[in-house]
Backbone:
């Protein structure tokens, strides 16, 4: 049963990684093609007034990890935050965004390796810096430039804390050694290892933006964060010799191997693949004109 679970999880994670690689390849190709178009039209857009947009966003967040290697949008949770967008011209915008979410995954629900019995809830606070490229010329409030699909790319820094649900309480997993110490002691692993609460990610995605009024913009967006940690769900390596245990509701709970199906040294996760998380949702932003820009000419 254990071997079949490992093979099944490995297969789905392999298929999912291939899909994400194709997604990244397509994204890079589209960016290269659109960059040349943006460069040719840059001089024609010098007179376009720069503007700033500020507003909230809300939607769902989920993770692709060792517990959930392939099911996008599974066990989604609420995500929310705020953003500031600087519109450089009709094609390019740059955005700073804060997102708070709780990412969940459970062997009982996902069923890739139900024999492990693991579950996790990871609280994430993310700060992303992204560039947006509009397929069509867009300016909030201008009727003939009021809609465009867009691509986005960038990077983020995030703080994360994984918890396990034990009875009616949550246990902070970073305080317990649920796996054997990794053999890899490189500086990269030391900087972004299990005991470090800070992570880095590459961000890419796409969306649609539309103008609702002279100052109000609405967007629909889906983006993926390819992180550089494998501990978003606190599952990565092999089972340890000594298992951390906690007591809840008068019962003892094994944080490393809740089902008791595994021996020390057996594979608990897949350290060859880093974790991802996805963000999908809607945003509303209000456009503010920056000083020194004649927006009246633009709106005619």
Residues:
């Amino acid at each position: 049963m254990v071997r079949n679970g490992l093979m099944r999880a490995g297969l789905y994670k392999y298929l999912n990684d291939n899909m994400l690689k194709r997604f990244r390849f397509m994204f890079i190709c589209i960016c290269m093609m659109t960059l040349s178009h943006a460069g040719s039209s840059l001089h024609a857009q010098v007179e376009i007034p720069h503007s700033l947009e500020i507003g909230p966003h809300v939607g769902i967040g989920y993770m692709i990890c060792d517990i959930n290697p392939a099911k996008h949008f599974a066990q989604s949770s609420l995500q929310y935050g705020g953003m500031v967008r600087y519109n450089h011209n009709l094609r390019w915008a740059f955005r700073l965004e804060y997102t708070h979410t709780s990412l969940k995954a459970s062997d009982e629900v996902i069923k890739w390796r139900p024999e492990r019995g693991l579950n996790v809830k990871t609280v994430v606070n993310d700060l992303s810096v992204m560039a947006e490229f509009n397929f069509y010329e867009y300016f909030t409030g201008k009727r003939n430039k009021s809609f465009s699909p867009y691509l986005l790319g960038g990077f983020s820094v995030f703080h994360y804390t994984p918890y396990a649900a034990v009875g009616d309480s949550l246990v902070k997993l970073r305080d317990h050694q649920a796996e054997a110490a990794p053999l890899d002691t490189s500086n990269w692993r030391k900087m972004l290892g299990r005991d470090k609460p800070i992570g880095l990610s590459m961000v890419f995605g796409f969306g649609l933006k539309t103008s609702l009024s002279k100052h109000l913009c609405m967007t629909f967006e889906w983006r993926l964060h390819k992180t550089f940690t494998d501990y978003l769900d606190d599952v990565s390596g092999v089972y340890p010799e000594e298992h951390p245990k906690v007591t809840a509701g008068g019962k003892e709970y094994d944080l490393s191997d809740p089902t008791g199906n595994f021996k020390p040294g057996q594979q608990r996760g897949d350290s060859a693949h880093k974790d991802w998380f996805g963000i999908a949702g809607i945003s509303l932003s209000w456009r503010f004109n920056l000083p020194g820009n004649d927006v009246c000419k633009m709106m005619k």
In short: Confidence is low (pLDDT under 50) at residues 40-46. The longest strand covers residues 147-166. The chain has one domain: 2-41+51-299.
